[in-house]
Design a protein that fits this description.
The protein is an alpha/beta fold. It has helices at residues 62-65, 89-98, 114-123, 155-166, 181-184, 187-199, 215-222, 239-256, 267-282, 290-293, and strands at residues 44-47, 50-53, 77-85, 104-108, 128-134, 174-179, 203-206, 226-228, 231-232, 258-264, 286-287. The protein has one domain (77-293): TIM Barrel (Alpha-Beta Barrel), CATH 3.20.20. 33% of the residues lie in helices and 18% in strands.
Length: 299
């Protein structure tokens, strides 16, 4: 890494004989920023619901292709995921343009103009997730929206809704829950969904809002990449309160080596995360994308 924070990768050519092309090994993690908004066609497959992410013929996974590179240093690392993008045009625009590229952005599958916003976010350096609506305990009084995956629905119905959500956007490294306390606690409903996410080479990020969530133990059993939020940063919608939660996140990271926070694209959250990120970087904290902190059995 250079003094200004730019990551420079050095490539060494392989030895070759007297003829034939020169071969250079290059890492397959991440994309050229100029192409970051363009999907890898080999990582998409057609379905009745639209084009879905899949593992490439050579084993390349979406989590590898669309991950934001990081330094690889052994210092303290923090990932922050800001969700709810696509639901509000002004909030989405602010999050993409004002948050540092190291912040992971999660797009709600029920949002608007998702492909356009995705392209802008990726060109600005953000890694992205897709938020899928899952049934909360107080459903239908609290309704995540159209296409919500339900514990009372059959696996076929939930899979069709999952695939419809997945087809709403491309270039994401994984799936994040939108609400979902009841669904995440129901093993019978959750298992086929997690298995489908796993086989597609995606990570699952649990926002940590449900203490009864089974996503972590299920992901480990399946050997799939997964991450779990340590701190919900904006339970209290006040900039100073959010900054205090971010300081708590930093203390966890200093103790454990890394930590993950989750919030939503409210004005107060965007302002606090931007301010705190600048200060944390000066304190030697590396802000990384969520894929860098996911437990990843297949690096």
């Amino acid at each position: 890494m250079t003094d200004n924070g730019t990551v420079v990768t050095k490539y060494s050519p392989k030895a070759r004989g007297n003829s034939g092309p020169l071969l250079i090994d290059t890492p397959r993690i991440g994309q050229d920023p100029r192409m970051a908004g363009t999907p890898n066609e080999l990582l998409l497959e057609d379905s009745p619901q639209g084009r879905l992410p899949t593992v490439g013929p050579d084993g390349l996974r979406p989590i590898d292709q669309y991950a934001r590179p990081w330094s690889g240093a052994r210092g303290t690392r923090i990932a922050i995921v800001v969700g709810g993008l696509g639901l509000s045009q002004t909030g989405t625009q602010r999050a993409i343009r004002e948050l540092p590229g190291e912040i992971t952005l999660a797009f709600a599958a029920t949002g608007n103009s998702l492909q356009r916003w995705m392209q802008e976010a990726r060109r600005d350096g953000h890694e992205i997730l897709l938020q899928v609506p899952l049934e909360p305990f107080d459903y239908p009084s609290n309704d995540p929206g159209p296409g919500t995956l339900l514990t009372t629905a059959g696996a076929d119905t939930n899979m069709a809704n999952l695939h419809e959500a997945m087809a709403s956007i491309t270039n994401y490294t994984g799936i994040m829950n939108y609400m979902g306390g009841k669904f995440l606690a129901d093993a019978n409903a959750l298992e086929p969904v997690m298995r489908d996410i796993s086989k597609r080479g995606l990570l699952f990020f649990d926002d940590g809002s449900s203490a009864r969530s089974l996503s972590g133990q299920m992901a480990k059993a399946m050997g799939m990449p997964q991450a779990f939020a340590d701190v919900q940063i904006d339970g209290q919608l006040d900039q100073q309160a959010i900054l205090r939660r971010l300081d708590e996140l930093e203390r966890i990271a200093l103790r454990k080596g890394s930590a993950t926070g989750a919030g939503s694209a409210f004005d107060e959250t965007i302002d606090a995360v931007r301010k705190w990120s600048e200060e944390a970087s000066r304190r030697g904290i590396e802000i990384v994308a969520i894929s860098a902190l996911a437990e990843n059995p297949q690096p």
